[in-house]
Amino acid sequence: MKKKHPKVNSFRAIDTALSLGFTLVIPQLGGLAIGLFLDHKLQTKPILTIVFLTTGLVLGIAAMIRQVKQNF
């Protein structure tokens, strides 16, 4: 009986961890960029930056939870 290669599982774990990191960070960066841009154009500093950064955080966490449920 052959054993499964542990390296394959290690690569999958690394791939999942990196993917989760990007899934959490990218929406936050997008929210930050949109918030800073709108705050600059509308002169409402820092209200829209906080709103869009928080929205990006919530969306990132929701996407991360969805991805974890899908993979595990």
UniProtKB/TrEMBL annotation:
This is F0F1 ATP synthase subunit. The chain crosses the membrane at residues 12-34, 46-65. InterPro entries: ATPase_put (IPR032820). It comes from the Bacteria. Keywords: Membrane, Transmembrane, Transmembrane helix.
